[in-house]
Protein backbone atom coordinates (compact mmCIF):
# COMPACT_ATOMS: atom_id res chain seq x y z
CA UNK A 1 0.00 0.00 0.00
CA UNK A 2 1.16 3.50 -0.93
CA UNK A 3 4.30 2.32 -2.68
CA UNK A 4 5.96 5.35 -4.24
CA UNK A 5 4.63 7.85 -1.71
CA UNK A 6 8.13 8.62 -0.49
CA UNK A 7 9.57 8.78 -4.00
CA UNK A 8 7.97 12.20 -4.45
CA UNK A 9 9.96 15.22 -3.27
CA UNK A 10 7.07 16.64 -1.26
CA UNK A 11 9.28 19.28 0.37
CA UNK A 12 9.66 20.98 -3.02
CA UNK A 13 5.92 20.98 -3.68
CA UNK A 14 3.71 23.74 -2.33
CA UNK A 15 0.43 23.80 -0.47
CA UNK A 16 -1.40 26.47 1.53
CA UNK A 17 1.29 26.75 4.20
CA UNK A 18 4.39 26.45 2.01
CA UNK A 19 6.24 23.13 1.77
CA UNK A 20 4.12 19.99 1.43
CA UNK A 21 6.59 17.87 3.41
CA UNK A 22 3.85 17.03 5.92
CA UNK A 23 1.45 15.49 3.36
CA UNK A 24 2.83 11.88 3.20
CA UNK A 25 2.37 11.33 6.93
CA UNK A 26 -1.15 12.73 6.76
CA UNK A 27 -2.07 10.44 3.86
CA UNK A 28 -0.74 7.40 5.74
CA UNK A 29 -2.68 8.43 8.84
CA UNK A 30 -5.95 8.06 6.92
CA UNK A 31 -5.54 4.29 7.20
CA UNK A 32 -5.06 4.39 10.99
CA UNK A 33 -7.38 2.31 13.15
CA UNK A 34 -7.60 5.21 15.61
CA UNK A 35 -10.50 7.53 14.82
CA UNK A 36 -8.80 10.58 16.29
CA UNK A 37 -5.67 10.07 14.19
CA UNK A 38 -7.74 9.76 10.99
CA UNK A 39 -9.86 12.79 11.77
CA UNK A 40 -6.82 14.94 12.52
CA UNK A 41 -5.16 13.87 9.25
CA UNK A 42 -8.29 14.51 7.18
CA UNK A 43 -8.73 17.91 8.77
CA UNK A 44 -5.09 18.77 8.03
CA UNK A 45 -5.44 17.75 4.36
CA UNK A 46 -8.56 19.87 3.99
CA UNK A 47 -6.52 22.73 5.40
CA UNK A 48 -3.36 22.42 3.32
CA UNK A 49 -4.06 20.82 -0.10
CA UNK A 50 -7.60 22.22 -0.20
CA UNK A 51 -7.59 25.46 1.73
CA UNK A 52 -10.97 27.22 1.62
CA UNK A 53 -11.61 25.84 -1.84
CA UNK A 54 -8.15 26.53 -3.31
CA UNK A 55 -5.97 23.80 -4.83
CA UNK A 56 -2.18 23.82 -4.89
CA UNK A 57 0.79 22.19 -6.60
CA UNK A 58 0.82 19.33 -4.09
CA UNK A 59 -2.91 18.65 -4.42
CA UNK A 60 -2.75 16.67 -7.66
CA UNK A 61 0.21 14.63 -6.38
CA UNK A 62 -1.85 13.52 -3.36
CA UNK A 63 -4.84 12.30 -5.37
CA UNK A 64 -3.47 8.96 -6.69
CA UNK A 65 -2.59 7.90 -3.15
CA UNK A 66 -6.03 8.91 -1.87
CA UNK A 67 -7.54 6.79 -4.65
CA UNK A 68 -5.30 3.89 -3.66
CA UNK A 69 -6.58 4.08 -0.10
CA UNK A 70 -10.13 4.31 -1.40
CA UNK A 71 -9.73 1.18 -3.52
CA UNK A 72 -8.79 -0.90 -0.46
CA UNK A 73 -11.93 -2.21 1.31
CA UNK A 74 -9.91 -2.36 4.51
CA UNK A 75 -9.40 1.39 4.64
CA UNK A 76 -11.57 2.93 7.38
CA UNK A 77 -13.97 5.79 6.60
CA UNK A 78 -13.71 5.59 2.84
CA UNK A 79 -16.68 7.95 2.55
CA UNK A 80 -14.54 10.64 4.18
CA UNK A 81 -11.85 10.13 1.55
CA UNK A 82 -14.43 10.42 -1.23
CA UNK A 83 -15.57 13.65 0.40
CA UNK A 84 -12.06 15.08 0.24
CA UNK A 85 -11.62 13.95 -3.37
CA UNK A 86 -14.92 15.58 -4.32
CA UNK A 87 -13.95 18.81 -2.60
CA UNK A 88 -10.68 18.80 -4.53
CA UNK A 89 -12.68 18.23 -7.73
CA UNK A 90 -15.36 20.87 -7.39
CA UNK A 91 -14.40 23.27 -4.63
CA UNK A 92 -17.66 24.46 -3.08
CA UNK A 93 -20.61 23.20 -5.09
CA UNK A 94 -22.48 26.42 -4.29
CA UNK A 95 -20.17 28.08 -6.84
CA UNK A 96 -21.82 26.12 -9.67
CA UNK A 97 -25.25 24.81 -8.68
CA UNK A 98 -27.83 24.39 -10.10
CA UNK A 99 -25.54 23.88 -13.11
CA UNK A 100 -22.49 21.68 -13.45
CA UNK A 101 -18.89 22.76 -13.11
CA UNK A 102 -17.79 24.50 -16.37
CA UNK A 103 -14.66 22.42 -16.83
CA UNK A 104 -14.07 23.64 -20.40
CA UNK A 105 -13.73 27.21 -19.11
CA UNK A 106 -11.21 26.07 -16.51
CA UNK A 107 -9.18 24.21 -19.11
CA UNK A 108 -9.03 27.37 -21.22
CA UNK A 109 -8.02 29.47 -18.20
CA UNK A 110 -5.23 27.01 -17.33
CA UNK A 111 -3.41 27.44 -20.63
CA UNK A 112 0.06 28.80 -19.84
CA UNK A 113 -0.13 27.86 -16.17
CA UNK A 114 2.53 25.18 -16.38
CA UNK A 115 4.98 27.70 -17.83
CA UNK A 116 4.21 30.09 -14.98
CA UNK A 117 4.85 27.34 -12.43
CA UNK A 118 8.32 26.81 -13.90
CA UNK A 119 9.22 30.36 -12.88
CA UNK A 120 8.12 29.98 -9.25
CA UNK A 121 10.81 29.05 -6.70
CA UNK A 122 10.42 25.96 -4.56
CA UNK A 123 8.83 26.59 -1.16
CA UNK A 124 10.82 26.80 2.01
CA UNK A 125 10.50 23.90 4.43
CA UNK A 126 9.69 25.33 7.83
CA UNK A 127 9.91 22.22 9.98
CA UNK A 128 8.97 24.27 13.04
CA UNK A 129 5.45 24.83 11.70
CA UNK A 130 3.01 22.04 12.53
CA UNK A 131 0.42 22.51 9.78
CA UNK A 132 -1.80 19.76 11.17
CA UNK A 133 -2.73 21.98 14.12
CA UNK A 134 -3.62 25.02 12.04
CA UNK A 135 -7.24 26.02 11.66
CA UNK A 136 -8.60 27.49 8.45
CA UNK A 137 -8.06 31.23 8.47
CA UNK A 138 -4.96 31.18 10.69
CA UNK A 139 -2.92 34.33 10.25
CA UNK A 140 0.38 32.45 9.90
CA UNK A 141 -0.60 30.61 6.73
CA UNK A 142 1.94 31.04 3.94
CA UNK A 143 -0.41 30.58 1.01
CA UNK A 144 1.09 33.19 -1.30
CA UNK A 145 4.70 32.87 -0.18
CA UNK A 146 6.07 32.35 -3.71
CA UNK A 147 3.48 34.15 -5.81
CA UNK A 148 3.94 37.71 -4.59
CA UNK A 149 5.85 38.72 -7.72
CA UNK A 150 3.36 37.23 -10.19
CA UNK A 151 0.97 39.41 -12.13
CA UNK A 152 -2.72 38.83 -11.51
CA UNK A 153 -2.96 37.25 -14.96
CA UNK A 154 -0.15 34.78 -14.30
CA UNK A 155 -1.44 33.95 -10.83
CA UNK A 156 -4.89 33.20 -12.26
CA UNK A 157 -3.31 30.93 -14.89
CA UNK A 158 -1.32 29.14 -12.20
CA UNK A 159 -4.27 28.42 -9.94
CA UNK A 160 -6.39 27.36 -12.91
CA UNK A 161 -3.58 24.96 -13.84
CA UNK A 162 -3.54 23.51 -10.32
CA UNK A 163 -7.32 23.13 -10.48
CA UNK A 164 -7.28 21.25 -13.79
CA UNK A 165 -4.40 19.01 -12.70
CA UNK A 166 -6.33 17.99 -9.59
CA UNK A 167 -9.57 17.59 -11.51
CA UNK A 168 -7.99 15.24 -14.04
CA UNK A 169 -6.26 13.26 -11.31
CA UNK A 170 -9.59 12.60 -9.60
CA UNK A 171 -11.29 11.94 -12.96
CA UNK A 172 -8.93 9.00 -13.39
CA UNK A 173 -10.76 7.45 -10.43
CA UNK A 174 -14.20 7.49 -12.10
CA UNK A 175 -14.17 3.69 -12.69
CA UNK A 176 -13.51 3.17 -8.99
CA UNK A 177 -16.29 5.57 -8.02
CA UNK A 178 -18.66 3.69 -10.31
CA UNK A 179 -17.78 0.43 -8.57
CA UNK A 180 -18.52 2.02 -5.20
CA UNK A 181 -22.14 2.56 -6.25
CA UNK A 182 -22.69 -1.12 -5.43
CA UNK A 183 -20.80 -1.08 -2.13
CA UNK A 184 -22.96 -2.22 0.82
CA UNK A 185 -22.01 0.94 2.77
CA UNK A 186 -24.84 3.41 2.05
CA UNK A 187 -22.78 6.41 3.12
CA UNK A 188 -20.05 5.39 0.68
CA UNK A 189 -22.63 4.83 -2.08
CA UNK A 190 -24.01 8.31 -1.52
CA UNK A 191 -20.57 9.90 -1.51
CA UNK A 192 -19.71 8.16 -4.79
CA UNK A 193 -23.01 9.17 -6.44
CA UNK A 194 -22.31 12.78 -5.46
CA UNK A 195 -18.70 12.72 -6.68
CA UNK A 196 -19.69 11.32 -10.07
CA UNK A 197 -21.96 14.32 -10.73
CA UNK A 198 -19.00 16.57 -11.48
CA UNK A 199 -17.51 14.84 -14.50
CA UNK A 200 -19.67 15.91 -17.46
CA UNK A 201 -16.91 14.91 -19.88
CA UNK A 202 -17.49 11.31 -18.72
CA UNK A 203 -21.29 11.47 -18.80
CA UNK A 204 -21.60 8.79 -21.50
CA UNK A 205 -19.88 6.36 -19.11
CA UNK A 206 -21.43 7.54 -15.86
CA UNK A 207 -25.09 8.04 -16.80
CA UNK A 208 -25.86 4.43 -17.77
CA UNK A 209 -24.44 3.16 -14.49
CA UNK A 210 -26.21 5.76 -12.36
CA UNK A 211 -29.51 5.24 -14.17
CA UNK A 212 -29.30 1.46 -13.90
CA UNK A 213 -28.35 1.43 -10.23
CA UNK A 214 -30.94 0.72 -7.58
CA UNK A 215 -30.44 1.90 -4.03
CA UNK A 216 -32.12 0.87 -0.80
CA UNK A 217 -31.32 4.25 0.72
CA UNK A 218 -33.60 7.21 0.01
CA UNK A 219 -30.60 9.50 0.51
CA UNK A 220 -28.49 7.69 -2.10
CA UNK A 221 -31.38 7.52 -4.56
CA UNK A 222 -32.03 11.25 -4.24
CA UNK A 223 -28.33 12.04 -4.62
CA UNK A 224 -28.10 9.89 -7.75
CA UNK A 225 -31.11 11.65 -9.32
CA UNK A 226 -29.51 15.07 -8.84
CA UNK A 227 -26.28 13.76 -10.34
CA UNK A 228 -28.15 12.39 -13.35
CA UNK A 229 -29.68 15.81 -13.96
CA UNK A 230 -26.33 17.60 -13.62
CA UNK A 231 -24.79 15.23 -16.15
CA UNK A 232 -27.46 16.04 -18.71
CA UNK A 233 -29.62 12.99 -18.12
CA UNK A 234 -33.35 12.93 -17.53
CA UNK A 235 -34.67 10.81 -14.66
CA UNK A 236 -37.95 8.98 -15.05
CA UNK A 237 -40.76 11.49 -14.29
CA UNK A 238 -42.40 8.76 -12.24
CA UNK A 239 -39.99 9.74 -9.48
CA UNK A 240 -42.05 12.93 -9.01
CA UNK A 241 -44.77 10.71 -7.49
CA UNK A 242 -42.48 8.56 -5.35
CA UNK A 243 -43.77 8.09 -1.78
CA UNK A 244 -40.35 9.11 -0.46
CA UNK A 245 -40.13 12.92 -0.07
CA UNK A 246 -36.43 13.26 -0.83
CA UNK A 247 -36.79 11.30 -4.05
CA UNK A 248 -39.60 13.64 -5.14
CA UNK A 249 -37.44 16.64 -4.27
CA UNK A 250 -34.46 15.34 -6.23
CA UNK A 251 -36.58 14.47 -9.25
CA UNK A 252 -38.09 17.96 -9.20
CA UNK A 253 -34.63 19.54 -9.16
CA UNK A 254 -33.36 17.32 -11.97
CA UNK A 255 -36.49 17.74 -14.09
CA UNK A 256 -37.10 21.40 -13.15
CA UNK A 257 -40.67 20.63 -12.09
CA UNK A 258 -42.05 23.99 -10.98
CA UNK A 259 -44.94 22.71 -8.87
CA UNK A 260 -42.90 20.33 -6.71
CA UNK A 261 -39.98 22.76 -6.44
CA UNK A 262 -42.26 25.50 -5.13
CA UNK A 263 -43.43 23.27 -2.28
CA UNK A 264 -39.82 22.81 -1.12
CA UNK A 265 -38.89 26.47 -1.44
CA UNK A 266 -41.73 27.51 0.84
CA UNK A 267 -41.22 24.70 3.36
CA UNK A 268 -39.77 25.73 6.71
CA UNK A 269 -36.55 23.92 7.74
CA UNK A 270 -36.21 22.26 4.33
CA UNK A 271 -32.78 20.81 5.09
CA UNK A 272 -31.24 17.37 5.41
CA UNK A 273 -27.51 17.23 6.12
CA UNK A 274 -27.32 13.68 4.77
CA UNK A 275 -27.79 15.08 1.26
CA UNK A 276 -24.35 16.20 0.04
CA UNK A 277 -25.51 18.81 -2.49
CA UNK A 278 -25.44 22.35 -1.11
CA UNK A 279 -24.75 20.90 2.36
CA UNK A 280 -28.26 19.51 2.50
CA UNK A 281 -30.05 22.81 1.86
CA UNK A 282 -33.03 21.28 0.06
CA UNK A 283 -35.01 24.50 -0.14
CA UNK A 284 -31.96 26.39 -1.36
CA UNK A 285 -31.28 24.03 -4.25
CA UNK A 286 -34.98 23.97 -5.11
CA UNK A 287 -34.87 27.78 -5.19
CA UNK A 288 -31.85 27.81 -7.48
CA UNK A 289 -33.58 25.42 -9.85
CA UNK A 290 -36.77 27.49 -9.74
CA UNK A 291 -34.81 30.61 -10.55
CA UNK A 292 -33.81 29.12 -13.87
CA UNK A 293 -37.47 28.85 -14.84
CA UNK A 294 -37.87 32.61 -14.39
CA UNK A 295 -41.64 32.47 -13.87
CA UNK A 296 -43.64 34.76 -11.60
CA UNK A 297 -44.57 31.74 -9.51
CA UNK A 298 -40.89 31.04 -8.97
CA UNK A 299 -40.29 34.58 -7.70
CA UNK A 300 -43.31 34.40 -5.39
CA UNK A 301 -42.03 31.13 -3.92
CA UNK A 302 -38.59 32.61 -3.34
CA UNK A 303 -40.16 35.65 -1.71
CA UNK A 304 -42.08 33.39 0.66
CA UNK A 305 -38.84 31.64 1.64
CA UNK A 306 -36.99 34.77 2.74
CA UNK A 307 -38.45 34.92 6.28
CA UNK A 308 -37.77 31.19 6.75
CA UNK A 309 -34.01 31.21 6.23
CA UNK A 310 -30.94 32.58 7.95
CA UNK A 311 -27.16 32.27 7.69
CA UNK A 312 -25.75 30.47 4.67
CA UNK A 313 -29.15 29.00 3.79
CA UNK A 314 -30.35 32.55 3.07
CA UNK A 315 -27.80 33.09 0.32
CA UNK A 316 -29.19 30.90 -2.52
CA UNK A 317 -32.85 32.00 -2.49
CA UNK A 318 -32.08 35.68 -2.00
CA UNK A 319 -29.38 35.60 -4.69
CA UNK A 320 -31.87 34.17 -7.18
CA UNK A 321 -34.61 36.60 -6.10
CA UNK A 322 -32.22 39.52 -6.59
CA UNK A 323 -31.32 38.34 -10.10
CA UNK A 324 -34.99 37.97 -11.01
CA UNK A 325 -35.95 41.34 -9.54
CA UNK A 326 -32.98 43.23 -11.00
CA UNK A 327 -32.27 41.53 -14.35
CA UNK A 328 -30.39 44.61 -15.58
CA UNK A 329 -28.09 44.66 -12.58
CA UNK A 330 -27.84 47.14 -9.69
CA UNK A 331 -29.60 50.45 -9.91
CA UNK A 332 -27.56 53.66 -9.55
CA UNK A 333 -26.77 55.09 -6.14
CA UNK A 334 -29.30 57.69 -5.06
CA UNK A 335 -32.21 56.08 -6.89
CA UNK A 336 -35.51 56.83 -5.18
CA UNK A 337 -37.61 53.89 -3.94
CA UNK A 338 -40.53 55.26 -5.96
CA UNK A 339 -38.71 54.16 -9.12
CA UNK A 340 -38.73 50.50 -8.07
CA UNK A 341 -41.13 48.29 -9.98
CA UNK A 342 -43.61 46.05 -8.18
CA UNK A 343 -41.34 43.00 -8.08
CA UNK A 344 -38.36 45.01 -6.81
CA UNK A 345 -40.45 46.72 -4.15
CA UNK A 346 -41.86 43.42 -2.89
CA UNK A 347 -38.36 41.98 -2.54
CA UNK A 348 -37.02 45.04 -0.74
CA UNK A 349 -40.01 44.97 1.61
CA UNK A 350 -39.50 41.26 2.36
CA UNK A 351 -35.83 41.88 3.17
CA UNK A 352 -36.65 44.87 5.37
CA UNK A 353 -39.19 42.81 7.31
CA UNK A 354 -36.88 39.81 7.83
CA UNK A 355 -33.98 40.87 10.09
CA UNK A 356 -33.20 37.25 11.02
CA UNK A 357 -32.45 36.50 7.35
CA UNK A 358 -29.49 38.91 7.53
CA UNK A 359 -27.90 37.09 10.47
CA UNK A 360 -25.45 34.25 11.03
CA UNK A 361 -25.58 32.77 14.54
CA UNK A 362 -27.33 35.90 15.79
CA UNK A 363 -24.80 38.33 14.30
CA UNK A 364 -24.80 40.35 11.09
CA UNK A 365 -23.75 38.11 8.18
CA UNK A 366 -21.28 40.17 6.15
CA UNK A 367 -21.53 37.99 3.04
CA UNK A 368 -25.27 38.48 2.93
CA UNK A 369 -25.04 42.25 3.40
CA UNK A 370 -22.43 42.49 0.64
CA UNK A 371 -24.59 40.45 -1.74
CA UNK A 372 -27.57 42.73 -1.20
CA UNK A 373 -25.44 45.87 -1.32
CA UNK A 374 -23.97 44.80 -4.67
CA UNK A 375 -27.38 45.60 -6.17
CA UNK A 376 -27.24 49.16 -4.90
CA UNK A 377 -29.56 48.38 -1.99
CA UNK A 378 -29.07 49.28 1.67
CA UNK A 379 -26.89 46.80 3.55
CA UNK A 380 -29.03 46.19 6.63
CA UNK A 381 -32.73 45.62 7.34
CA UNK A 382 -32.84 48.84 9.36
CA UNK A 383 -31.42 50.86 6.47
CA UNK A 384 -33.78 49.04 4.13
CA UNK A 385 -36.79 50.14 6.20
CA UNK A 386 -35.53 53.74 6.22
CA UNK A 387 -35.04 53.52 2.45
CA UNK A 388 -38.69 52.53 2.02
CA UNK A 389 -40.05 55.17 4.40
CA UNK A 390 -41.36 58.25 2.56
CA UNK A 391 -39.82 61.63 3.54
CA UNK A 392 -41.46 63.32 6.53
CA UNK A 393 -43.18 60.07 7.45
CA UNK A 394 -43.60 59.93 11.24
Structural features, described:
The chain has 394 residues and is mainly α. Among the domains are: 155 residues, no CATH class; 71 residues, no CATH class. Helices cover 51% and strands 3% of the residues. It is built from 19 helices and 6 strands. The chain has a two-stranded antiparallel ribbon with strand order 1-2. It has a two-stranded antiparallel sheet with strand order 3-4.
Features:
19 helices; mainly alpha
Radius of gyration: 23 Å
Strand content: under 5%
* Number of extended strands: 6
Helix content: 40-55%
Order of helices and strands: EEHHEEHHHHHHHHHHHHHHHEEHH
Question: Which whole number gives the mean pLDDT?
Answer: 91
Main β-sheet, spatial strand arrangement: 1-2
Unreliable stretches covering 5 or more consecutive residues: 127-143
Structural class: mainly alpha
Biggest beta sheet attributes: 2 strands, antiparallel
Task: Give the count of helical stretches.
Answer: 19
> What gap, in angstroms, lies between the N and C termini?
75 Å
Envelope shape: globular
List the helices and strands and how they pair.
Elements: E1 14-15, E2 18-19, H1 23-29, H2 35-48, E3 50-51, E4 54-55, H3 57-71, H4 78-90, H5 103-110, H6 113-117, H7 152-171, H8 174-180, H9 186-196, H10 203-212, H11 218-230, H12 245-255, H13 258-265, H14 282-293, H15 296-305, H16 315-325, H17 342-352, E5 359-360, E6 363-364, H18 366-373, H19 381-388
Antiparallel strand pairs: 1-2, 3-4, 5-6
Amino acid sequence: MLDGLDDIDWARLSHAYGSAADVPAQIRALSSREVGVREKALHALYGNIYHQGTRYEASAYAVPFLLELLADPGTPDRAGIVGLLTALTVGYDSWWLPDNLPIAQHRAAAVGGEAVLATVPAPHDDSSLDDSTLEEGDEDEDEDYAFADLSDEDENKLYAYFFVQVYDAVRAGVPLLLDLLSDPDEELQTAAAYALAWFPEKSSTILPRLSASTFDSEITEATALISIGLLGGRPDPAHLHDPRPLVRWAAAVALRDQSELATWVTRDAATDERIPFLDGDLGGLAGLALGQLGADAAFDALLARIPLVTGVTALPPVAVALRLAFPDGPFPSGTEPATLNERQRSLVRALADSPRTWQYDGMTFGNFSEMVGAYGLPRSPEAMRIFLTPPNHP
